[in-house]
Design a protein that fits this description.
Length: 149
C-alpha cells in the first residue's frame, strides 16, 4: 500500500469515527480528537464557526432539538487529503431547535460533507450541504409566498 492510500484510509477511518463518536454517541468531549486548532466549518455555504466553542454550540443545537438523532453514512470516499461523505440523519423533534419549539415530528434529511485534513489527520475544513427547507417542512413549517402589489 502506498503512502497516499494509507493516508486516505486513515482519513476515512477518522471521518467514520467522527460520525459515530460526535453525532451518534453525542460525545462532544472528544471534539479535540477530530478538529485542528484552526479550522473552518461551513454549512450550506455559510461559515458557521472557526473555533471549538462555537462548534460545540452549533452541534448542540441539533442534539437539543433531536435528542434521538442518528447519523448514517450512506457513502464515503477518501481522496488524497479529503474525504467526501453522503449521509442521512433521522430524529424526532422533542426539544427546542434553535429558536423553534419542539413539534414532536420525525425528520429524515440527507446531505453531503467534505472534509480537508491536515498532516496530523485532523479536520481543517468542513463543508456540509443539506436541504434546510426540507427539514423545516418536515417539522411543519411552510414558506409564505411574497406579496405582490
Amino acid at each position: 500500500m502506498d503512502r497516499t492510500t494509507e493516508v486516505e484510509e486513515e482519513n476515512k477511518k477518522t471521518a467514520i469515527s467522527f460520525a459515530a463518536t460526535i453525532w451518534n454517541d453525542k460525545d462532544l468531549s472528544q471534539i479535540e480528537i477530530f478538529y485542528a486548532d484552526e479550522f473552518t466549518r461551513m454549512v450550506n455555504n455559510i461559515e458557521v464557526t472557526s473555533d471549538k466553542i462555537e462548534l460545540l454550540a452549533n452541534i448542540q443545537v441539533y442534539f437539543t432539538g433531536f435528542p434521538d438523532l442518528k447519523f448514517s453514512i450512506e457513502k464515503i470516499i477518501p481522496y488524497h487529503d479529503k474525504v467526501f461523505m453522503n449521509w442521512t440523519i433521522t430524529g424526532t423533534n422533542t426539544g427546542m431547535f434553535g429558536e423553534f419549539p419542539a413539534t414532536g415530528k420525525k425528520v429524515k434529511v440527507s446531505g453531503i460533507t467534505h472534509f480537508d485534513f491536515d498532516e496530523e489527520g485532523k479536520f481543517i475544513y468542513e463543508e456540509a450541504f443539506f436541504n434546510e427547507l426540507s427539514l423545516l417542512q418536515q417539522l411543519g413549517y411552510s414558506l409564505t409566498p411574497p406579496a405582490f402589489e
